[in-house]
């Protein structure tokens, strides 16, 4: 059997996803009509040997309750459980902490997925490679530009055998443009001993006790770990730094290079490319969830059944309209996400933007962002010499007045924009 783990992180993470993560934990944010982790589950559900999935994170217990309940009906073949870390344990710490639960039923393999990526998740292909190579670990890789590569884990592999020769997490200088997608397949016999030896290496390593001469007390002496004091103190184990490099040296470690789409979902703006990619995937798969193309519905477009879109509004491509949203006559929405209970008044124009829950966009208003090339792996642009967010984002319950123009702005919740907003952090 095979199991899957989705690393969902916790409330101290997802800070770059603000202001959207102020109201919803990032893994549950809707792109293409579904929570980010629903897309992971959909891919996991296509692997016949998986029947158990763990969401591991340090959000409160209640956060995923409704999602898990809904998923039980939607994915009847999967048993989904949330396992809560008592504190952030790092990307491998949770795996280790919950090893008894994970190893129950003796699975041979586990998939580990970062929740904050948007991807076609070619899990069956990874499984196949693993079997062909008798691998102990398979990592999903993708090629990015040289500029972008150092923001990710970098993989040096043998082109012929696909074996991973070196792995360096966010290297300072360029080593490879094949990067870690944050999706792994491990044999259970390899991963847990690897984590155990990483812990052992850490405990064995001598640490320096440095005493700072301080006039009033002696408590100001503390341990300095050459690498990372935090990680030692907190039992944090990082898959990337502590395990993967070592696996490249010592294990049967292979890379499956995807030719399909892949993007990270870090900043709030990155939900726009993710939305576009998942909608395009649904469109290619002939999904019946999407709106029927019409002269003024340019596919792919997702419209929630409870939304009310005026027949003269023009939508798409790459638009998601959430529950109970109203879109007025003559409005234009393109490359955008409009969240629950929002209203776009008549003749308004919303481009490359995210309209937060229960917001209002006035008549003839323009809310605009800027497109970023898919290959750039960033959602910021330089405008008039200043780095600004490419995607305009309205937080929860914002209001844009009639005829007001908002460009490249991030607008915090409950704000009212009555006048023209230039690229600023409207707060
Ligand atoms: N449960 C749990 N506990 N999950 C965590 C923790 C933790 O302490 N820390 C991070 N995560 C989850 C995050 O929610 C996210 O889904 C994933 O682990 C990775 O997050 P980061 O640790 O922030 O790493 P990153 O996104 O900067 O980089 C990772 O992903 C890139 C691909 O998107 C690395 O694996 C890179 O090598 C990789 O290229
Ligand atoms: P396509 O190019 O075929 O997608 O048609 P389009 O011209 O509607 O889309 P485009 O990519 O040009 O981007 C949206 C356009 O809508 C912009 O050129 C806006 O000027 C225009 N627009 C601005 N305000 C409104 C409005 O209130 N209603 C409508 N329908 N369109 C507007």
Automatic annotation (TrEMBL):
Stated role: Involved in cell wall synthesis where it is required for glycosylation. Involved in cell cycle progression through cell-size checkpoint.
Top EC class, one word: transferase
Pathway: Nucleotide-sugar biosynthesis; GDP-alpha-D-mannose biosynthesis; GDP-alpha-D-mannose from alpha-D-mannose 1-phosphate (GTP route): step 1/1
TM stretches of this protein: none
Designated name of the protein: Mannose-1-phosphate guanyltransferase
Chemical reaction(s) catalysed: alpha-D-mannose 1-phosphate + GTP + H(+) = GDP-alpha-D-mannose + diphosphate
Record-linked PANTHER family: SUGAR-1-PHOSPHATE GUANYL TRANSFERASE (PTHR22572)
């Amino acid at each position: 059997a095979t199991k899957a783990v989705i690393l969902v992180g916790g409330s101290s993470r997802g800070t770059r996803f603000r202001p959207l993560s102020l109201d919803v934990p990032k893994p549950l944010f809707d792109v293409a009509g579904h929570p980010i982790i629903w897309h992971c589950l959909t891919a996991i559900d296509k692997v016949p040997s998986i029947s158990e999935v763990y969401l591991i994170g340090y959000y409160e217990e209640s956060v995923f309750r409704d999602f898990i309940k809904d998923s039980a009906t939607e994915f009847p073949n999967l048993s989904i459980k949330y396992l809560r870390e008592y504190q952030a344990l790092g990307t491998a710490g949770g795996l280790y902490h919950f090893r008894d639960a994970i190893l129950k039923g003796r699975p041979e393999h586990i998939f580990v997925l970062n929740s904050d990526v948007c991807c076609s998740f070619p899990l069956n292909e990874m499984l196949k490679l693993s079997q062909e190579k008798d691998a102990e670990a398979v990592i999903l890789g993708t090629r990015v530009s040289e500029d972008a590569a150092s923001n990710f884990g970098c993989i040096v592999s043998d082109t012929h055998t696909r074996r991973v020769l070196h792995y360096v997490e966010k290297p300072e200088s360029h080593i490879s443009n094949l990067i870690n997608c944050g999706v792994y397949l491990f044999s259970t016999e390899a991963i847990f001993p690897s984590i155990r030896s990483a812990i052992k290496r850490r405990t064995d390593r001598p640490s320096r006790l440095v005493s700072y001469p301080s006039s009033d007390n002696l408590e100001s002496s503390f341990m300095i770990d050459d690498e990372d004091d935090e990680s030692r103190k907190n039992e944090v184990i990082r898959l990337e730094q502590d395990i993967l490099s070592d696996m490249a040296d010592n294990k049967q470690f292979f890379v499956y290079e995807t030719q399909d789409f892949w993007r990270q979902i870090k900043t709030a703006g990155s939900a726009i490319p993710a939305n576009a990619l998942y909608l395009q995937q649904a469109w290619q798969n002939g999904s019946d969830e999407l709106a029927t193309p019409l002269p003024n519905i340019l596919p792919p477009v997702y419209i929630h059944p409870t939304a009310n879109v005026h027949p003269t509004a023009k939508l798409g491509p790459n638009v998601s309209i959430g529950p109970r949203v109203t879109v007025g006559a003559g409005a234009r929405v393109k490359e955008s996400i409009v969240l629950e209970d929002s209203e776009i008044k008549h003749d308004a124009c919303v481009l490359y933007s995210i309209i937060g829950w229960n917001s209002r966009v006035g008549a003839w208003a323009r809310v605009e962002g800027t497109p970023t090339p898919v290959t750039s792996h960033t959602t910021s642009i330089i405008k008039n010499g200043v780095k600004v967010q490419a995607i305009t984002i309205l937080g929860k319950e914002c209001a844009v007045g009639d005829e007001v123009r908002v460009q490249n702005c991030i607008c915090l919740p409950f704000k009212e924009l009555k006048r023209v907003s230039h690229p600023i952090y409207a707060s």
